[in-house]
Amino acid sequence: MAARTPGVCELLAEARCLYGEVFGGGAPQVAACAPGRVNLIGEHTDYNQGLVLPMALPLVTVVVGSQNPGMDVTVVTARKDADKPHRVDFSLPSNGASLPPGSPQWANYVKGVIQHYRGRPLQGFKAVIASSVPLGGGLSSSASLEVAFYTFLQQLIPDDGDQVSKAVACQQAEHTHAGVPCGIMDQFVSVLGQEGHALLIDCRSLEATPVPLADPNLVILITNSNVKHSLAGSEYPLRRRQCEEAASILQRDSLRDATMDQLREAKGRMDEVIYKRARHVIEEIQRTVQAVDALRKGAYKEFGKLMVESHNSLRDLYQVSCRELDQLVSAVLEVDGVFGSRMTGGGFGGCTVTLLQAHAVDRAILHIQEHYSGTATFYITTPSEGARALALS
Ligand code: ADP
Ligand code: MG
């Protein structure tokens, strides 16, 4: 059945307990949390300045900690599945020098956030991280860690308080310190997500519009394939380059500015693969517009149909799906009460997202278990709140 995931209170208790163990019994002064996300539709469109429709998850990263007198920093993660060691010690550079990435890899997300933090001067601190977001599962544990950490720092040293700059700083952290050239979606929804709403993000204007999604008869089921093919690391930057190439042939700043008519007209001037990539992006942006309309009307069947079209396009045109994700989607679409399903996130493994009637969820999970060749993990989710400070009473 669905995975039992600890809530914010439980994670906070875990982090406080570990803080006491590691730092000799003291209590943390401040705490913050930020969610992972699932993208409902609009995949591989964010770095093309397109539209995306993610929602924040009830799966979160919590950070607790306190200021240190000097410039020394200690950070500990409670996650046993993060690369070792689980504790890192370093000093904040003085005189505006940069804080270089290093080892362990997980600490680079933290160092990147420190580097790009928009409040100064930073002072040393000690912190503990606890999280319920699966690591590397495509639900953006990385953005939830960055945004939770940024929100934690805001409790210690105030920044300029601008939400968009906060998301951008966290994205920068991932670029410069984790070496992942991600789009803005994950950090944005982790900062600005709202309970009971999906978030339409225009990745060009950085405008975010909440779209109500709080129907008690509806469930958003996330299925983790629990596979991650190594292709993901190299194919993502390749897709970005292919999109840039298509935009350049079309003489546009980005594929956001291109239409299908223009693409068809330019077909003879581009490689077939580049054409397919561009077609996915242009049509996926259109699908996202249609999906928002469908959601506003409560037209879930229509929304589900668009999800399936999105999956098929990611599989056939963008070529970022894999056997396991295709299996999960095909299996769940055979169940009565399922509106639609698709792979979500970068691809080559990770999760699928399925929109279905609440009464169908147990049957859907059983059916997937019977038909999936691997072992899946399930999360029954609702659109949740974005990053926030937590009270330590
Ligand atoms: P995703 O964002 O889809 O979960 P990524 O590969 O982008 O996958 O990010 C996962 C990485 O983020 C982990 O391998 C780890 O380095 C880091 N990370 C995320 N959350 C934590 C955490 N709670 N503790 C330690 N590292 C974390
Ligand atoms: Mg990530």
What does this structure look like?
Its EC number is 2.7.1.6. This is Galactokinase. Pathway: Carbohydrate metabolism; galactose metabolism. The protein has 393 residues and is an alpha+beta fold. Helices cover 40% and strands 24% of the residues. The protein is built from 11 helices and 12 strands. The protein has helices at residues 8-22, 106-116, 141-156, 163-178, 185-192, 231-249, 260-265, 272-297, 300-316, 323-333, 361-371, and strands at residues 30-41, 51-67, 72-77, 87-91, 125-131, 197-202, 207-212, 218-228, 338-344, 349-357, 377-381, 388-390. The strands form 2 sheets. Strands 1, 2, 3, 4, 5, 6, 7 and 12 form an 8-stranded mixed beta sheet that branches. A 4-stranded antiparallel beta sheet has the order 9-10-8-11. Strand 9 (338-344) and strand 10 form a beta hairpin. The two termini are 34 Å apart. 49% of the residues are buried.
Question: What's the helix and strand layout?
Answer:
Elements: H1 8-22, E1 30-41, E2 51-67, E3 72-77, E4 87-91, H2 106-116, E5 125-131, H3 141-156, H4 163-178, H5 185-192, E6 197-202, E7 207-212, E8 218-228, H6 231-249, H7 260-265, H8 272-297, H9 300-316, H10 323-333, E9 338-344, E10 349-357, H11 361-371, E11 377-381, E12 388-390
Parallel strand pairs: 3-5
Antiparallel strand pairs: 1-2, 1-12, 2-5, 2-6, 3-4, 6-7, 8-10, 8-11, 9-10
Bound molecules: adenosine-5'-diphosphate and magnesium ion (MG).
